[in-house]
Design a protein that fits this description.
3-stranded antiparallel β-sheet, alpha+beta, elongated, about 15% strand, Nucleotide Exchange Factor Grpe, Chain A, domain 2, 3 domains
């Protein structure tokens, strides 16, 4: 028993100085500082960096939103322009053809105006065919929004709708009023296709009397 106790290993005594020496010699972790204010500085820099990054993200978001809204507005404007161009093409695409057909209408109208009663009795079928063709032509005009503009005697001259072919003094017709219509005008949609060719009164204002006033005087 005495020998067994002597062979057992003896526990070494812990030396406090050795422990403190080993701890002091161990490497410090990265970023470690014994100064407590150093942690506060690192935390403050981190928050500043995060705030700057958030600000940059917000600016980028606002810029992208602005670009998106501009792109949507431009797309909507492009769609409206395309719709307007399509409607204009449908309505005004045949303007040149319609303008050329007006001379056909004028010639046909003049031919019918020269027919007297005796010739109408002799060639009634031919005249009826011409009148039917004229009506068909006007129906085709109406189908394509081409309307006849036929001003009346005494109507005020409008340079936007009428073309003055001559001026002449006419009793009881105030200056600047229509006294004769030589060719009617035509419009297509809201545009003027051809102005009406008219004669305009040049009667001085002192010599002209309103037609309605003269009629009332005659009735009295």
């Amino acid at each position: 028993m005495t020998d067994a106790k002597q062979d057992a290993p003896k526990s070494e005594d812990v030396n406090q100085d050795d422990v403190e020496k080993k701890v002091s010699l161990s490497p410090e972790p990265e970023g470690f500082s014994e100064d407590p204010l150093a942690f506060e500085d690192d935390s403050g820099n981190f928050l500043d960096d995060m705030e700057a990054e958030l600000t940059a993200i917000r600016n980028e978001r606002d810029d992208m939103r602005d670009r998106m809204m501009r792109a949507l507005a431009e797309a909507e404007n492009s769609r409206k322009r395309a719709d307007r161009d399509r409607r204009d093409a449908e309505l005004y695409g045949g303007t040149r053809l319609a303008r050329d057909l007006l001379s056909v209408y004028d010639n046909m109208n003049r031919a019918l105006d020269t027919i007297d009663d005796s010739f109408r009795e002799q060639a009634s079928a031919l005249i009826e065919g011409l009148e039917l063709t004229k009506r068909e032509l006007l129906a085709a005009f109406a189908k394509h929004k081409i309307e006849k503009q036929d001003p009346e005697f005494g109507e005020k001259f409008d340079p936007q709708l009428h073309q003055a072919m001559f001026e002449a003094p006419v009793p009881n017709a105030p200056a600047g009023t229509i006294i004769q219509v030589m060719n009617p005008g035509f419009t297509i949609g809201e545009r003027l296709l051809r102005p009406a060719q008219v004669g305009v009164s040049s009667t001085p204002a002192g010599q002209a009397k309103p037609v309605e006033a003269e009629a009332e005087t005659d009735e009295e």
